[in-house]
Amino acid sequence: MAKQIQAIRGMNDILPGQSRRWQYLENIIRQVVAAYGYDEIRMPVVEQTDLFKRSIGEVTDIVEKEMYTFEDRNGDSLTLRPEGTASCVRAGNEHGLLYNQQQRLWYMGPMFRHERPQKGRYRQFHQVGVEVFGLDGPDIDAELIQMTARLWKTLGLTEHLTLELNSLASNEARANYKVALTEYLGAHAELLDDDSKRRLESNPLRILDSKNPAMAEMLAAAPKLSEYWDDESREHFNGLCARLDAAGITYTHNERLVRGLDYYNRSVFEWVTTSLGAQGTVCAGGRYDGLVEQLGGKGTPAVGFAMGLERLVLMLEQLDQADLPAAVDVYVSAMGEQAELPAVKIAERLRDEFPGLRVMQHCGGGNFKKQLKRADKSGARLALIMGDDEIANEVVSVKYLREDKPQQSLTWDQLSQVITTIHS
Ligand code: HAM
Q: To test the ligand 1 pocket, which listed residue (83, 269, 289, 310) has its Cβ within 8 A of the most ligand atoms?
């Protein structure tokens, strides 16, 4: 036998049984973003490499070591998108959607990062992202968090997720803080691991993110970013907290939440769970008021977040929260060649008269036992059987596959009534 070709490590197939859980999740997300009046935008999965270098930042993990970058046949450097914010800003600038306008957008799709695969961390993964342009107050930051809180409620995940908030303040305040932090960390250089030593020059704030227990005590005593906040950022942060308090959304202020992408300022947040092991951040985002201008547009405030769908699906699976509907409602069988066409007609008539009803037609022949086995395996609630007797008497036999009820012979009108009750 020829050698089989396997999928690329960290890039997963979503198989038929699993895809139903994905659809369930995606449908609920669509409903929630629609409930807040957001519009969908779809961007290409490949962009010019410079777009990500200029937005995410040259000295971030993503740009330094995780991007799928290649030269295309014209010799241009292209990259499979590692996230959606940069593309969204690029598209907004390119089509004149942002300046002096308010836009509330969302997107869904695959992203690519060459990370070490583990549970909840993949090389192709899927995000739903939400981005808002043209609004600079804490009211919109709060709206985004309220939207996510509503999503968790609808999915039954509320009690498994906690919200962490911080403010990265203005660029100037952050630069002042960076000086103080670098000085402090430099004075404790003997405690820094190799990764942190490397970051000390390039991106000291990221050292605060370190999970290394040997550095925990030293980091806990480090200067706090909030001591360097400018007044406007403090006011913005307090405004956001007040709104979340009023909405009954609990949070913790995590002084060490800095995020791994360079474009953020002011509010940043993450929804975290302890139920997924090391990859516990399910949804993350914040403000990026400078990015539109940095990518060549006119200054426009912006805020957004993205959530990892694989991580949400894993949570739903673990909690078994998603009530998965079977793929089929009604299975239509024919006993004998004579009955085949009438059975097809019944199936088509059902599809005509009950839009949304999922009707599977038996194909491939076989005896009664085999057909019923297939009907059962399909997950359908009803098996409809056409045979010589049914044709002669102008009825359909109905077998209830999930209820303890006797088989019945029904006219079309009687069948319609039964279908109406299961298809409401
Ligand atoms: P991020 O924190 O890099 O932010 O990713 C957001 C979410 O995507 C993470 O919290 C996680 O759930 C999921 N995720 C990231 N990497 C992986 C991976 N390798 N495997 C599985 N899931 C993953 C952003 O991407 C920003 N663009 C978010 C944003 C939008 N900020 C403002 N607007």
A: 83
Question: What pTM, to 2 d.p., does this model score?
Answer: 0.93
User: Around Cβ 23, how many Cβ atoms within 10 Å?
Assistant: 15
Nearest CA to ligand 1 atom 13: 308
How many Å lie between the centroid of ligand 1 and the Cα of residue 302? Answer: 17
Q: Whose alpha carbon is nearest atom 14 of ligand 1?
A: 308
Return the pLDDT at 211: 85
Tokens of 246: 């009023």
Look-up: residue for tokens 């009750």? 421
d(CA 414, CA 273): 50
For tokens 């201008």, name the residue: 293
| Sole residue written with tokens 């059975």 | 343
Tell me the C-alpha to C-alpha distance, in Å, between residue 149 and each of 177, 250, 316, 329, 339.
31, 10, 16, 33, 53
CB contact at 8 A, 115 and 121: yes
Residue 396, judged by CB atoms within 10 A of its CB (0-12, 13-18, 19+), counts as buried
Q: What is the mean pLDDT of residues 380-407?
A: 96
Give, using CA atoms, the residue closest to atom 22 of ligand 1: 308
Domains identified in the chain and CATH numbers: 16-169+229-319 (3.30.930.10), 330-423 (3.40.50.800)
Number of the ligand 1 atom closest to the C-alpha atom of 281: 10
The string of pLDDT tens digits covering residues 337-369 is 999 999 999 999 999 999 999 999 999 999 999
Ligand 1 atom at minimal distance to the Cα of residue 283? 10
pLDDT at 278 over 90: no
Q: 135-140 — which CB contacts under 8 Å span 24+ positions?
A: 135/102, 135/301, 135/303, 136/289, 136/301, 137/236, 137/239, 138/236, 138/237, 138/239, 138/240, 138/243, 138/267, 139/239, 139/243, 140/303
